[in-house]
Amino acid sequence: ANSRVAKAMDAGEYNYAIAFQERIKVNDEQMKFYEELAEMYVGDDVSPDFYGWVFPKYDHVACGTGTVLNRPAIQDYQTAMRVRAGDKIKGGKIIKIEAHPIPEHYRPRRVVGRMALVGDAAGYVTKCSGEGIYFAAKSGRMAAEEIVNFVKANGGKLPTEKDIKDTYIKKYDGLYKPTYLVLDLLQKVFYSNNAAREAFVEMCESEYVQKVTFDSYLYKKVQGNNPVEDVKLLFNTIGSLFRGAALAPPDKEYTNPVESLKRL
Q: 25 with 93: CB under 8 angstroms?
């Protein structure tokens, strides 16, 4: 995300989240719990606008969280994540600490002259999940293929800025921009407050939601083409939001006036 090329071409700024995680070596019994399980935690104690996680790695777990709204408090949220995970990681040894900026949206300019951005530098990270590795590899491959194809088709002529926008950018946005827009909307709706988070957790009990979520993550495009189930999901979502509003604890207040002014 801290791309020197983006700075050199004046690609513009974007909002970003801070993702913070600790890689923790746990004992064999604790590791066995995570053999076929990854955990996701929501609540304003672990993040005011994202989620916390415990993901299994080869021989350890990664425990972390992220936020864009209150980045100075990231270590407080990480402490809360360890508390929430509790005995499942208790006594584990921290073997590595990692923190990265996660872009929240596309760069204002992804192509300038013959310079083109891909991956995190271009802002290709999805909301809700924070998925970026696939899109980094995919965008890099697409950009390279489109440039090579253009050169071959035009007798060795290099593409202009307009040519790159008409090929790589147009095709990439055609494939994935709807996914970014939908996931952006979902994050704004379900990660914004405790009531919405309670609704989100309740909705995830639905097998249809689980299938659509899994398929969307697997294929990197928003899935779900069952009109009957989609209508049911709409009404269930409205009901979940009302129940969440009635049952969820109020959100904790926080102040972040200086950094808030930096957000676009």
A: yes
Q: What is the pLDDT of residue 214?
A: 87
Expressed in percent and rounded to 5, the helix, strand and coil fractions of the chain are: 50, 15, 35
Instruction: State the DSSP code for 69.
Output: S
The verdict on pTM exceeding 0.85 is yes
**What was the pLDDT predicted at 129?**
86
Other C-beta atoms closer than 10 Å to the C-beta of 244 total: 21
CA–CA separation, 63 vs 97, rounded Å?
10
Residue 127 DSSP SS3 = coil
State the burial class of residue 252 (Cβ atoms within 10 Å of its Cβ: 0-12, 13-18, 19+).
exposed
Nearest CA to 61 among 99, 19, 32?
A: 32
Going 168 to 174 to 176 to 178, the CA torsion angle's sign is positive
Q: Determine how many CB atoms are found less than 10 A away from the CB of residue 82.
A: 19
Q: Report residue 256 CA to chain centroid gap.
A: 22
Q: What is the pLDDT of residues 184-207, one digit of tens each?
A: 999 999 998 999 999 999 999 999
Each residue of 254-263: b (16+ CB within 10 Å) or e? eebeeeeeee
Bridge partners, residue 52, by sequence:
41
Would you say how long the chain is, in residues? 264
